[in-house]
Amino acid sequence: MEKVSGKKLQFILCMMLLVPLSIMSLTFYIYIKVSSTESLNETLYRFNINTAIDSISIPVSDINKTLANISEILASPEQIQKYISPDSKSVNDKIAAIMNSYSYLENIVVVNDINGNYKTYPEHIRFEKDFDPKLRPWYRLNQSGQIYYTDPYITTGQDAIDNKQWHVTSSVTIISEDSRMLGVIAADVDLNKISELLRDKIIPYHGQFLITTYDGRVVISPNSREILRSEIPQEWIEKAKKTSGYFYDKDNALVFYKYYSAPNWIAFTSVDEYNQSKYFERSYLLFYVASIICILILLILFFLYSTYNKQLVGKIYLGANGIDVSSKSLNLDGLEREIAKQRTRLKLVQHEMVVDNLTHLFNRKKLEDDIDILISEQSEFCLAMIDLDDFKLINDNFGHLIGDDVLKFVAREGKRILGEENPIYRVGGEEIIILFPKKDLQTSISLLNAWRLQVNERDWKESALKVSFSGGITTWENGDYLDDLISRADQALYNAKKSGKNMIISN
Question: Is 410 helix (H, G, I), strand (E, B) or coil?
Fold first, then answer.
């Protein structure tokens, strides 16, 4: 089973928190986007419908009532003739009262179908000299008895209809009880009056509200300069294919629309791309705040985990080293002393693991570690093996205590003469190996002989005791391992023993 490191474990735990958080954040972002879009669409849809009712349905209903009431007053040829005659004061007063009750009409024209006479209200309104009501679109197209609204058209005249002007006119045919056409009532729709209803309207998201004809000419607008003078993009007319709905135009403006008939108008509410972006930015602000809070919480949790993990590891380490971290009397100074003691014990244990207890020379484990380092460095070195001559006889004749003293003396003199740079290892009873890093063969042999002579010249209190050693030495060659070196050095040692002992022979 693969071992998981502390950093890898921290990374895994961090991912375990980060992945669900990322999924939650993405879900929250999608939810905000969808709900914000739905809210935007719902608000604009309702505003377009409600404002269209205020700007179209209610004024048109008032206009229809006005024309219907006037039509009732003039429902007979006698009443029409009486109104048209110059001294028709009572009928005039009734029409004036009706007109004052409803404010969305101006310039009423009553036409008698029999003789072509007509009369206007207010009476000061005058048309061009060749004015013929029967040539007006509202007369020609309204033969059904229903209230009819014209598309914008141009007239010429004076006073209120001065020079060339655009008009939208509503009209109704006066029908007798026996279904005969008695005349036509026509009145211009006061588009400015209707537009005034919009001037105090606050359009959501800094949008725009307009009412246009089916071909795109503006008839109702908060800006009076646009009325019957401006047109919407033709693209809007082409994309408004249903009775109501919404679309995005080429500039990415969001446009809601609704069709009306009698009059044939379309209500538009639009919000440009910039104001849509501002709205969504405000909506996403909650997401950004929530994301920052979640990230901060994640960082805090990660910090707390790291701190706790370090404390836990510290307690485990101290406990493993024999320090009771739960002790109430263990303050900072005491903890420092305990750690120092444990470090001393650790160094002692590490030393005992690689040092022979009797001679204080390094052991075979240390030899194997050091030889691996020298081989990896590919540097020149020599390996020697020595063996005390007739050491078994020394133990048999003088006892093991003397034998131990001999080993200690040989080891002590070797460390003194060879120095720390040439480590010595006890690998058997009286077998010792020496490494000479970065030394050539002759230098290594000279050092060994100096050591050998010092041991051989020692006078012991046991007069019959003489100590000497024989040795074999070899140099490292590329491709050699420890066993190869020991084998050649051992062969050289054997040759030294065979040649008379107390000498150093190289392989």
Answer: helix
